[in-house]
Amino acid sequence: MGMHMKNSKKMITLIALCLSGAITTSGYATMLPDIPVSMKNGTGAIDNNGVVYVGLGSEGTSWYKIDLKKQHKDWERIKSFPGGAREQSVSLFLNDELYVFGGVGKENSESPLQVYSDVYKYSPIKDTWHKVNTISPVGLTGHTGVKLNETMALISGGVNEHIFNKYFIDIMAAADSEKNKVIYNYFNKPAKDYFFNKIVLIYNAKDNTWENAGELPGAGTAGASSAIENSSLTLINGELKPGLRTDVIYRAMWDKGSLTWLNNSQLPPSPGEKYQEGLAGAFSGYSHGVLLVGGGANFPGAKQNYTNGKFYSHEGINKKWRDEVYG
Is 17 contained in some domain? Predict the structure, then answer.
């Protein structure tokens, strides 16, 4: 999973839960020690032995682990990531190795931001990283993923690689007097013009292959959260375009190698709010059979602006980091 949060050294129970529903059902739920450094926009996963791994994001190429089964829990530094600093990666354990899918970053200090489509894996036994000889069929930034079984992962959503990359190329090339125009032209478009990814991909770590599992039953999203239990898949909210979230929740069943989409639902409004703006970068996971969703961020008022015909819907609105938990 990816971590989209403000700077925080606190690993609260909800964040630990969202790395895997097995944490609470196995009796691991607790307040964990501070991560050694503040971290945002990183990623994390948990292995079958109850060891949590977190890294990347604002910490560059650094990774840390903590064993939830130990009486005295401490974070340990592991081998640094060889693929360069990046944010918004998705990480999952497959075949007892930590897989890191995509992200967004720079090739070097002089390069524009770009979408990555690569995959890396980490061996806990050897404390070594290896670049997997594969490339995703679509760019992997703003995507989300779940583990289907020990060898297969489901990856969905994300920005359009070409449109996203072009924006940052244009920003870098523009003179200072022209940058605001580039920004306005990028954000002032309807959601359909961003072509966020609707394709659902299945990655098989055993065979190192990708499969097209169909499309989302509605609009493509970026920054959605995801959870799965007993073959029941849930994809929660995300962005429809930069700055504009959706409150829609997609549900599906994974059975015999295929997805069957169920009826959509909506995340309810927070107490005291007229409607739900939707969340991007939220945490989600199961605890004792209950799906919990928490955190994330949105731009209050953006949805109404968009409904009123203002495509640059979050212009002048401060991003709000949410602390509600839904279940």
Answer: yes
Catalytic residue among 59, 87, 161, 239: 239
Provide the token pair at 260: 């069957």
Burial class (CB in 10 A: 0-12, 13-18, 19+), 8: middle
For residue 6, is it within any domain?
Answer: no
Residue-wise pLDDT tens digits, 141-188: 999 999 999 999 999 999 999 999 999 999 999 999 999 999 999 999
First CA to last CA distance, the chain: 19
CATH code, 246: 2.120.10.80
| Residue 59 falls in the annotated catalytic set | no
Evaluate whether residue 120 is within a structural domain.
yes
Let me know: does 111 contact 192? Beta carbons within 8 Å. Answer: no
The span from the CA of 52 to the CA of 39, in Å, is 15
Q: What is the pLDDT of residues 242-262, one digit of tens each?
A: 999 999 999 999 998 999 999
Number of domains composing the chain: 1
Look up residue 47 and give its amino acid: D
Q: Cβ contacts of residue 150 below 8 Å, gap of 6+? A: 94, 95, 96
Beta bridge partners of 200: 156
Q: Which domain holds residue 203?
A: 13-326
Alpha carbons within 13 angstroms on the beta-carbon side of residue 282 total: 35
Give me the residues paired with residue 265 across strands: 249
In a domain, 277, yes or no: yes
pTM of this prediction?
0.91
